[in-house]
Amino acid sequence: MFVTNDLNSTNYDACPECDLLINHAHPTIGDKVHCPRCGFLLARPRKQSIEHTFSLSIAGLILIFPANLLPMIGIEVMGESTNGLLFSGVMALFSKTMWPVAIVVFLASILFPLVHILLSFLISGHLYFNRSCRYLASWMCWMQHLDEWVMLEVYMLGIIVACVKLMAMAEIKFGWGLYAFIALLIITGMLTSKLDTELFWHRIGKLRKEHYHES
Ligand SMILES: [Zn+2]
After folding, report:
1. What is the pLDDT along the chain (215 residues), one digit of tens a residue?
2. What is the whole-number distance in angstroms between the Cα of residue 15 and the centre of ligand 1?
């Protein structure tokens, strides 16, 4: 988490990794600011980060439905076909008493991506329309922590491995759920790369100040 202490006058920030206080000039687009002690990436300004995050999160919220509700893979063995959904993969792990794995897969590939996209939508939406909300800072903290736990690519890797193994013995059809899932994977990756945390924290602080002055 990158917290700007004073948003107007000085530009002192504490490094989230080693707590070193740094007074750096406001970086411009294309700049990268690293901590001089531990090398942690402190700021990486992005172009139109709020607008991009807002539109990407809307696309993500739409894609979550087909990715979770439509069949991902159809398997046909000797005339009998079954369809696999994202959730049925989790349920299969549960029924095989592999519940610790099932919980991890459920959290990293279904729940956390959903909450992450929802938080991105709520935060960027509020910032885009200049609406203050007292939960903005906590949402931002949650979102930054969740970022490390969204692991759609792990599930994707599992699908690829399973498909390669099954291809020899069964006919495999890829469903719309899989395409939506791949698109969702790209969207979550873009959400992380387009997020300008410093700008977001700065805007949240500014909105809070304006709100404080009004009331
Ligand atoms: Zn540091």
Report:
1. 444 444 444 556 777 778 888 877 777 777 788 888 888 777 778 888 999 999 999 999 999 999 999 998 888 877 778 888 888 888 888 887 788 888 888 888 889 999 999 999 999 999 999 998 889 999 998 988 888 788 888 778 888 888 888 888 888 888 899 999 999 999 999 998 888 888 898 899 889 888 877 76
2. 5
Domain containing 41: what range? 1-45
201 C-alpha to ligand 1 centroid (Å): 19
User: Are 63 and 168 within 8 A, CB to CB?
Assistant: no
CA of 33 to the centre of ligand 1 (A): 11
**Tally of domains within the chain:** 2
Burial of 90 (0-12, 13-18, 19+ CB in 10 A): buried
CA 39 to centroid of ligand 1, rounded, Å: 6
Q: Mapping DSSP to helix (H, G, I), strand (E, B) and coil, where does residue 80 land?
A: strand
Question: Do 31 and 109 share a structural domain?
Answer: no
DSSP-assigned letters across all residues of 5-63: S-SSS--EEE-TTT--EEE-PPPPTT--EE-TTT--EEE---TTHHHHHHHHHHHHHHH
Predicted TM-score (pTM) of this structure? 0.78
Residues 33 and 136 occupy one common structural domain: no
Domain boundary residue among 29, 45, 61? 45
Same domain? 13 vs 105: no
